[in-house]
Each structure stands twice: as structure tokens, then as C-alpha cells.
Amino acid sequence: MKGRSLQNLSVNAIQLIVNQLLGLGIFYILSTGLDKHSFGEINLVLAILLAAFNILSCGIDQLVVKKIAAGEDVKTILSLYSCHVIFTGLVFYGTLVGVYFLAPGSGLVYWLLVLLGAGKLMIFFSTPFKQAANGMERFKMLAYMLVVSNFIRCSGLIFLSFSGALNLHNVMVLFICGDTAELVFCILIFTFSSKVPLVIAWDRAKYFRLLRQALPQAGVVLITSALARFDWIFIGLLVSAVKLAEYSFAYKIFEISSLPLLAIAPLLIPRFTKIFRQINVPAKELKLLARLEMIIAAFTILVLNVCWSPVIDGITSGKYGLINVKTIFILSLCLPFIYLNNFFWTIYFAQGQLKMILRSFVITFTVNVAGDILLIPFFKNEGAAFAFLAACIVQTIYYFKKNQIAEIGSVWPPLVISISSAILCGALAKLLFQNNWVILHSSIGLYLLAIISTKQIKWSDRNMLKRLLS
Fold first, then answer.
1. Among candidates 74, 1, 8, 3, which has minimal Cα distance to 268?
2. What is the C-alpha separation between 89 and 400, in angstroms, rounded?
3. Residues 216 and 296 occupy one common structural domain
């Protein structure tokens, strides 16, 4: 079991690294090859579509992973969820297209919604196969599913860029082709690799039972979907597409910087589901996992801020580096809280505390939206980043108050120590040295020294980590 856990983590990590590199390549080519206004409008449309299709899942996607991990019939669950995505996806896209007949003079943003929406609809249709693979812990299969679209898009954009044909029309065509290819590939690889027959059969009683079970999580999805991109939509609609281009660039790098969490998170749901079905919960081992996540998150804060301006200005010809220094610093401070919130969320989800999770996201969403409305008109991108940070902190505080496992409730000192060490070591290195490479290496050395001296890493931790993996 330990070997399988390490293998799953390795496969997932490799997939994420490849996918994030491809995604970064896509983002870089678009951000530098298109003007800021066009780049901003694409990101506005993608933000709207991401929120819409996440809401349409109604929280069933995560419930599917939990049910399959708990041993329920894969064929039945896959069939029910496939019926859901086909019906809700077609209704949404049909409504989107129907808007044209009500407002035939629709502008560029609407047509971008229609075109990119066609591709995202294909991605939505492929969701049941990905979630089934996740629940079955078939992470190698899942890795192939997740890479296809980004590989096609990145390769196509490189070709368009070198051939001088990079424009909005060709980008739309390429995105639709890549997303459609992902759907076809997901169906084929799941059918042949899992040996689970694809049967789409409507069962009214079972479907509505599944939907009722997902209702608390549906509220969470509704709020998190709006929370994830509300700031993008708010900036794009009420400030400008140019400011959104700048903010979305910083936010994209911020998302990529959470790569370790993205590697760990999919593995935690099936693993925590099994852990919390046991009588004796390994609380000390869970506390160690939370402490290690804090160390990784704070290390990311350090590297991201030390490298930001010299690296980003160098690769974007000064378009997105210096102008985003304050924004990326505020966003990077969210990382430890996001790690901790995901850790607590997975525990509560595995325990079935969906109503409590919903309340936490209602509070978080309220704080974030209020912060955006109050701060963005005055502080623009920095205001959006600070509103997001405030929302993350409030959610962490709420989760701490609801925690009933004593050992895990004491993980706040590592949170404070790790963040403080990262900020102080980065500031000290910049104060002492001028060369960027010297600043980077010295700040990392100082951070490791601080973490070891404060006993955030101990030699005895390796035994508890082995027990957690097994």
C-alpha cells in the first residue's frame, strides 16, 4: 500500500508538472502574442465559463469520487453522472446560443463565450470519466486524460506563433479542437483501460437520490465557483480588460505556484475517506502532514517573491513583472491558508460534514465579495488580492473553530512560524545582497536554517510519515 501511495503521488506530480508547463506555455504565448485588451477579454470569458460549468456539476463530481472510493458500483455511478452532465451542459449551451435571438447585436465578448463555450462543453462532458478514474485511484489513466487538451493547445499555439498566424480567430479554433480531442480520448482510454462498460441509462430514483446527497456540496460548489473568479469578472466588467490582463497573469502564476497542493489534493480524498472509516484516526500523522504543507507553502512564498520581478519582466519584456509586484506578494500570502483550508476541507468532507462545509464557504464568499466591492474601485488589482487573502484567513479561522481533533487544532504555530520565516528571510537576503542569484540562494539557505532551528522539521518525522503513507 505504501508503494502504491508513492507511485500515485509520483504519477500525479508528473502529470501536474507536465500540465502546468503546458498551461504556462499557453498562457505565456497568449499574454505576449496578443494585446492586453484581447488577452483580458479571453480571460474574462474563461472566468465566466469556468464558474458556470463548475456550478452545473452541482457538487456531484466530488461525491462521485467519494462513492467510488468507498466501493460503490462504478458503472452505475458513471451512468448517473454522465446523464447529469449531458442534460445540464446542453441546456446551458442552448440557452447561451439562444441569447443571440434576443440580442442579435451582441458584441465580441458574447461570441467569445459561444466559441469557447463549445470547447468547455466538451471538457464538461469528459468530467465523469476523470472523476471515476480518480475514485478508482487510476491516476496514470487520469494523467493521460488531463494532459491531452493542453498538449494540443500548446503545440498549436507554438506553431501559430512561429508561423505568424497567432490571432483571435485561430486561437478560438485551436481551443475548440483541443477540448473536443480531450473528450474523445477520455471516452476511449477509460473504456479500454478500466474495462468498465459505458452505459448511459437514466434511472430517475437513483439520480435524484444522488442529487439529494450532493445538495450540501452543490451549495459549496456554487459559492466556490463564484469565489474563484468573481474578482476576475468584477475587474473585467467594471475596471478594464487591460487591468484584468495584468491581474489574471499574476493570478495564473499564483495558481501554478500551488503545484505541490495540486499534486497532493486528489490523493487525499480517497485516502482520508478510508482513514476516517477506521476507529482509530492517526491524528499525530495528520498533524505532521499539515505541518509539512505549511513549510512547502511558505517556501513557495519566498521563491515566488524573490524571483518575481527579474524573471517575469525578463520573459514578458516588462509587461507583467514590476506592475504586479504588490499583487503577487498579497496573493502569495494566501498559499499557506489555502493548503490548510484544503486539508481541513478534505477531513470534513471525508466525515460527511457537508452542511458545515457549506456554511464555511458562505462566510468566505461573503467576505470576498464584500472585499472586492469595497476595495477594487479604489485599489484595483491589489484590492482584489487583499479581499481574497482576507477570505482565506476567515475560512481558516472557521475551520479551526469547528475542528474536534485536538492534535490537529495545534497546527497554527507552524503556520505563523513558516510564513514569518519566509518573509523575513527574503527581506534579509534582499537587504544584504544585490545579485538576484545570490539573493535567491541565500534566502533559501536562511529559510531552511530557520525551519530546522525552530524544529518545524525533525528527524523523527520520517517514521510518522511512513505510517501515514501505509
1. 8
2. 37
3. no
Listed residues 238, 254, 282: the one ending a domain:
238
Identify the band that residue 236 occupies on the pLDDT scale cut at 50, 70 and 90. confident
Amino acid at 198: L
| Domain final residue, candidates 238, 264, 296 | 238
Nine-digit cell at 178? 483541443
Distance CA 223, CA 273 (A): 23
Judged by average pLDDT, the poorest of 84-93, 135-144, 223-232, 415-424 is 223-232
Locate 124 and state its grid cell: 464538461
Residue 335 scores a pLDDT above 90: yes
Under 8 Å between Cβ of 136 and 65 = no
What is the grid cell recorded at 270? 480517497
Q: How many domains does the chain have?
A: 2
User: Cell triple for residue 77?
Assistant: 455511478
Question: Which phi and psi (to 5°) does residue 146 adopt?
Answer: -80, -20
Residue 463 has pLDDT above 60, yes or no: yes
Averaged pLDDT for residues 411-417: 88
Alpha helices in 351-459 (DSSP H): 354-402, 412-432, 436-453
* Residue 90 CA, distance from chain mean position: 25
For residue 146, what pLDDT is reported? 87
Provide the grid cell at 254: 499564483
| Residues 6 or more apart in contact with residue 349 via CB below 8 angstroms | 62, 66, 217, 269, 272, 357
Q: Are residues 312 and 178 in the same domain?
A: no
Give the domain range for residue 400: 240-470
| Range with top average pLDDT, 93-97, 98-102, 103-107, 288-292 | 93-97
Q: pTM here?
A: 0.76
> Helix 241-257 crosses helix 36-56 at what angle (to 10 degrees)?
60
* 111-144 per-residue burial string, b: 16 or more CB within 10 A, e: under 16: ebbbbbbbbbbbbbbbbbbbbbbbbbbbbbbbbe
And the C-alpha cell for 266? 486528489
Residues 372 and 257 in one domain: yes
pLDDT at position 224: 67
